[in-house]
């Protein structure tokens, strides 16, 4: 290419002996060459912009889903307590599965937290996306299970399994704390995005908190405000 350019620059057309000139074909070659340089120089800029826009759209829609899921779960758990007198998981009778101890706290240590979503499934509670709460015969359905391919209410549409859990404020005060929805093994970037968008952005304070999980992921804790 260098040799071609050198020859083109030195060559003169016979009709214009006093000026350097290029034939149409030679000019086309030069324009293609320069266009290729410009294209490959600016392509990464457009690619990065498109990638950032795509990522922002994904985060936005996952945020919308997250917001509706938490609202639906809160309504479902509150309705369960209204109907049965206990929170799911803490429910002390055997008709809905493994019973809890009925002490008002859905605790991890005794298996109540893992049982909470099963109680919801068996509790004949349905929560529609529009907030129209009602009871009906059959297994429970939540906002987490109203899309084909998501049959279990403990499977979140944003890729995390969900449980209800009592979390003390500090280890030395186990009776002082609150109930949280725990979205397990969430992507770290998504968790911090949700915390920043829907709470104070601090992983250790507020209604949304972040705790380390396995393999670089995190657990997202969302305060249950229904009780």
Short description:
The chain has 227 residues and is α+β, with helices and mostly antiparallel strands. 41% of the residues lie in helices and 18% in strands. The N and C termini lie far apart (75 Å).
Describe what this molecule looks like in 3D.
The structure is a single chain. The chain has 227 residues and is an alpha+beta fold. Helices cover 41% and strands 18% of the residues. A four-stranded antiparallel beta sheet has the order 3-4-6-5. A two-stranded antiparallel sheet has the order 1-2. A hairpin with a 5-residue loop joins β1 and β2 (133-135). It is elongated, with a radius of gyration of 30 Å.
What structural category arises from helix and sheet content?
alpha+beta
The major sheet is characterized as: 4 strands, antiparallel
Specify the number of helices.
4
Distance between the termini: 75 Å
Average residue-wise pLDDT: 75
Succession of helices and strands: HHHEEEEHEE
Strand order of the largest sheet: 3-4-6-5
Strands, total number? 6
**What is the percent of helical residues?**
40-55%
- The shape is elongated
Number of domains: 1
Strand content: 15-25%
Indicate the radius of gyration in whole angstroms. Answer: 30 Å
Parts with pLDDT < 50 across at least 5 consecutive residues: 127-153
